[in-house]
TrEMBL record:
GO molecular function per UniProt: hydroxypyruvate isomerase activity
UniProt keyword list: Isomerase
UniProt cross-references to SUPFAM superfamilies, sorted A to Z: Xylose isomerase-like (SSF51658)
Organism field: Roseibium aggregatum
InterPro entries linked to this entry: HyI-like (IPR026040), Sugar_Epim/Isomerase (IPR050417), Xyl_isomerase-like_sf (IPR036237), Xyl_isomerase-like_TIM-brl (IPR013022)
Protein name per the record: TIM barrel protein
Amino acid sequence: MARFSANLGFLWKDLSLPDAIRQARKAAFDAVECHWPYGAAPDEVYQALTETGLAMLSLNTRPGDPAKKDFGLCAVPGREVEAQEAIREAVSYARFIRTPFIHVMAGQAEGEAAHRCFLENLDYAADQAEKDGIQLLIEPINQREIPGYFLRSTEQAAQIIEDLGRPSIRLMFDCYHVQIIEGDLSHRLETLLPLIGHVQIAAVPDRGEPDRGEVNYGHIVRLLDDLGYRGAIGAEYRPRGAIEDGLGWLFDLRGA
């Protein structure tokens, strides 16, 4: 049976992170994940995780300076000091709350200098994270939502993982982004599964609950099971209405 993780960057974001964890448990999710937990005391987050029996599967490095509309720093030349501070902060937080994955956000950049910068910062991040058995995720993000984002395809991400040769660096396969960028989800999952650390879902094109739109998630869930994927599937969607009113998909896909 498939397991599903509530992404608390989009779900119950009006609540404190500890209370959002408790709400995810009440809604019958199997795990949780988040974007940027840094405003919440890690001991309170860990207490909520322990109380509910849920694991926090992933968190992101900080996006950067809100005034500059940053969406990550690790591929941005000239921002290496900030990027590595964000990496150390994420590793420390993940270590405390026992989170197995950190999404290392590349940011908006392009060209050979950005490529070298990203590889250097990923190598640095792997040195920090591997001490605690933490794995790193890199994620292609569609240009429609984040113009200029450095990671623009699964092929580019796979090449970076191969070039670095660090087993701790894995692919975040967000079906929503991949469908918009390049489509062909079934073939890409089959081909890339050895590199995939985590899978996320949302409806395409509206990024709502994964119960409609152009992707048949019943098929995707069954395919992942057939391929031997045993991780949780992250529900990173923006609710169309009240969260609890839209959870029918969870029970449908869990039985798929």
